[in-house]
Task: inverse folding
């Protein structure tokens, strides 16, 4: 009994034998394999969100793993499932990630119960990033609402670490209540840096809140925006970035200079499962970072 | 393209040779429908006589043999406080016999998604490269509109493609392994007579009237008609059962779930075919659903077929086989939906 056509072993293809690197997207590789990573620290941010500091265990994998602000990883909790999470840490720290995760479902629930030392899986990075290189030489508006500070934080680090490359920097952050403010221990540090203006606002203050009260758009009215020399990065729920971007557009800022990050359900991260499709656009591949003009043209995006 | 000619007996010997060395999958009469019609599936056969090579159509497409409804993407082995991951690729050699041009064109579309430049899938590639494909020409099927989508002819994506010219087959050879397989049964060179008979047969098939479904204007029309009443009309009928996506030769959306064995020693990460018509398709954690209404989900399926896919791959994701129309319990036929949409724009 002899085979009439030669058998094919995909695992022996030369590309499959190369080290796994998700940034080389066109090369055949074991895209279902996760990098094993250890949770170094779990930091409680609010009642709902925790920050997980994670380290890729294998030294080679750790060395190769590189991402850009705005990209995301697929976080695997073996036995529970895999979810897309944007990276909150600085892109200049190799092999080390900070993931800000809200307790919302099965996998995030499991993560919230884990302790330091637990081993999870990381696939990625995936998706588009904020154009930090293009923005150099311009003023930057970094605007976040609620959990939107998680993806925005990577670009805040990018700006701070390369402060001389950017003009004026404004960070505006708003949440529903003071209890929901993320990374509040870092505001002091950020606001002490020269020419970084940090403003925080909440919608529903409590008795311990002495800051500004209102919607995030009110913070926009307080600052001077030079629409021709400024880029904006806006992260938050659709209703928030729509109002913010429309306001910026009204001030004369081109929509191609406003960048937003969208979130959708994802099961693959590689443009296959179609779960994150918005109209006809894959959030995992063509996003999650889009310029606002593109978002305006996406059906059912907002 | 090289062409050869084989007798019907030679085809039988070829298939029997394959049967000796691997799984042969082809159209087989598996049941009879309520109105007496034959129900065929692409299933493994054990003899040449089980195959019905003059069949009209199958209920399911052949995609399940390249992109199974369920497949293990990877598995985890758990130890006390650690785990390891293992990945197995399906490398079983298979022969798919009797695929129609629409199914072969559908595989070419799946190739674009799973086997091309962008994150190619080793699971898919392993199956695809270990599958030998023998296509065959056929009388146009009832309700099909493959000609409107240019998928009534296959020029690539197969190893051998047969056209019945009376007592023999005119064979297009699509690969070197197809060429070598033909050598095993001593296929002969084609003669002028073979070519003549082939061209006459192709013309006869082309002259058979088929429903026309113009799709060239759909990418823009779907945007213009995004809020059209047409979607409510058809969406109200939709049962959100997902049958259309299951029988579709190109629908490839999926979900991934993980399961843990009863002894907690192993976990499986399984890819399972999904449908954008199912209610929780676009639901995210926190119970927010981006497409809670069935008309939105139905619209989305057309949107992906005729706009999204065109944007990325320059062709619609549909091959016009009308399996979705035939299988739909609510009688939603793509031909009618598309025509409604086109009429709506003009009135």
Result:
């Amino acid at each position: 009994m002899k085979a009439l056509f030669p058998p094919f072993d995909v695992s022996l293809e030369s590309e499959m034998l190369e080290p796994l690197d998700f940034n080389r997207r066109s090369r055949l590789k074991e895209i279902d394999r996760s990098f094993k990573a250890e949770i170094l620290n779990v930091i409680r941010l609010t009642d709902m969100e925790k920050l997980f500091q994670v380290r890729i265990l294998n030294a080679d994998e750790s060395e190769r793993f590189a991402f850009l602000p705005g990209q995301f990883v697929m976080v695997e909790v073996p036995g529970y499932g895999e979810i897309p999470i944007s990276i909150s840490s600085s892109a200049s720290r190799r092999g080390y990630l900070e993931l800000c995760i809200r307790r919302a479902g099965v996998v995030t629930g499991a993560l919230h119960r884990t302790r330091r030392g637990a081993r999870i899986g990381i696939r990625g990075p995936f998706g588009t990033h904020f154009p930090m290189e293009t923005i150099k030489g311009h003023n930057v508006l970094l605007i976040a609402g609620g959990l939107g500070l998680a993806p925005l934080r990577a670009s805040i680090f990018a700006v701070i670490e390369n402060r001389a490359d950017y003009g004026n920097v404004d960070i505006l952050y708003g949440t529903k209540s003071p209890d929901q403010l993320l990374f509040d221990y870092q505001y002091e540090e950020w606001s002490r840096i020269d020419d970084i203006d940090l403003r925080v606002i909440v919608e529903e203050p409590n008795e311990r809140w002495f800051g500004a009260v209102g919607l995030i758009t009110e913070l926009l009215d307080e600052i001077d925006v030079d629409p021709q020399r400024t880029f904006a990065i806006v992260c938050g729920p659709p209703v928030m970035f729509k109002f913010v971007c429309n306001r910026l557009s009204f001030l004369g800022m081109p929509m191609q200079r406003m960048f937003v990050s969208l979130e959708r359900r994802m099961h693959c991260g590689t443009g296959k499962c179609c779960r994150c499709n918005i109209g006809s656009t894959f959030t995992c591949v063509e996003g999650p970072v889009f310029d606002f003009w593109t978002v305006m043209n996406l059906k059912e995006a907002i | 393209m090289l062409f050869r000619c084989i007798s019907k007996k030679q085809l039988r010997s070829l298939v029997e040779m394959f049967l000796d060395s691997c799984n042969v999958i082809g159209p087989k009469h598996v049941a009879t429908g309520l109105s007496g019609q034959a129900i065929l599936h692409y299933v493994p056969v054990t003899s040449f006589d089980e195959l019905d090579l003059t069949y009209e159509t199958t209920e399911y497409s052949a995609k399940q043999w390249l992109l199974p409804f369920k497949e293990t993407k990877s598995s985890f082995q758990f130890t006390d406080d650690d785990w390891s991951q293992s990945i197995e690729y399906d490398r079983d050699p298979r022969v798919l016999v009797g695929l129609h041009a629409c199914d072969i064109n559908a595989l070419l579309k799946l190739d674009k998604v799973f086997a091309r430049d962008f994150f190619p899938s080793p699971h898919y590639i392993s199956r695809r490269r270990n599958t030998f494909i023998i296509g065959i020409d056929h009388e146009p099927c009832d309700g099909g509109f493959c000609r409107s989508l240019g998928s009534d002819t296959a020029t690539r994506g197969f190893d051998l493609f047969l056209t019945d010219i009376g007592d023999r087959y005119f064979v297009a050879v699509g690969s070197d392994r197809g060429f070598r397989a033909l050598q095993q049964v001593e296929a002969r060179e084609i003669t002028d007579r073979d070519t003549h008979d082939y061209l006459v047969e192709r013309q006869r098939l082309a002259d058979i009237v088929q429903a026309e479904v113009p799709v060239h204007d759909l990418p823009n029309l779907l945007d213009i008609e995004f809020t059209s009443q047409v979607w409510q009309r058809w969406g109200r009928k939709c049962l959100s059962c997902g049958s259309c996506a299951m029988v579709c030769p190109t629908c490839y959306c999926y979900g991934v779930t993980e399961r843990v064995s009863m002894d907690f020693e192993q976990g499986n990460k399984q890819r399972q075919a999904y449908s954008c018509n199912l209610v929780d398709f676009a639901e995210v954690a926190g119970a927010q659903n981006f497409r809670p209404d069935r008309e939105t989900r139905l619209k989305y399926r057309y949107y992906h077929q005729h706009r999204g896919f065109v944007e990325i791959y320059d062709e619609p994701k549909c091959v016009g086989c009308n399996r979705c129309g035939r299988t739909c319990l609510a009688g939603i036929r793509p031909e009618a939906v598309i025509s409604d949409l086109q009429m709506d724009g003009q009135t």
Q: What stands out?
A: Residues 201 and 218 of chain A are 9 Å apart (CA to CA).
